[in-house]
Every structure is written in C-alpha cells, then in structure tokens.
C-alpha cells in the first residue's frame, strides 16, 4: 500500500505543543512514526521555523529524514501565489499562506 502524503505547514508543527490540538497532532505524528504517512514539507516551512521558539524549531529534527519529502519553490509556485494576491483571494499580508497553498497545487 502506498503511503499517504500530507503537506504540513508551520501551524502543524506549532500546534504539536498546543493544549487545544495536542491530542490530534500527536496522533498525526504517531502515524508518521508508524510509517503510515509521509510529511511533505517546503523550504518555506523551514524558513518560517527559523523564527519559532527553539522547541518548535527543533521538533522535526526528532524524526527520521526518510519520513519527509521536501518540495522547493518553483516559478510556478511563486506565480500562483502572486496570482492569489492579485485576484484578492487573500490580502497581501498572506503571501506566505498563498505560497503554502501553491505548494499544495504543485505536488502530485
């Protein structure tokens, strides 16, 4: 059976330590440990984590790198994110969110 791939953004890493979402998030990470899923990550995720508290920033370091698939920002991703802004899907302050959405569109 092919492993399910799940794109994660910075909020998934952050809520690992949030009391409100801790149970569900830890279940998701348990599925990762059980090799049931692969987390698809982006350069943007790691850029955003640079600003996070140390315990959040280092969370993904606790997992085998084989549990992750990394996607990079292509011109297509950048153009799509900018189009979302131009079409006023969201405000300009949400460019990074648009990039995350564009990454989702780019993975197959």
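Sequence proposed for the structure above (108 residues):
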């Amino acid at each position: 059976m092919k492993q399910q791939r799940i794109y994660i953004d910075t909020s998934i890493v952050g809520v690992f330590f949030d009391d409100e979402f801790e149970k569900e998030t830890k279940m998701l990470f348990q599925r990762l440990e059980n090799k049931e899923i692969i987390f698809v990550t982006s350069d943007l995720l790691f850029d955003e984590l640079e600003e996070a508290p140390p315990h959040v920033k280092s969370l993904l370091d606790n997992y085998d790198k084989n549990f992750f698939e990394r996607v990079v920002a292509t011109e297509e991703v950048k153009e799509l994110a900018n189009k979302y802004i131009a079409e006023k899907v969201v405000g300009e302050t949400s460019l990074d969110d648009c990039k995350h959405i564009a990454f989702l569109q780019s993975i197959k």
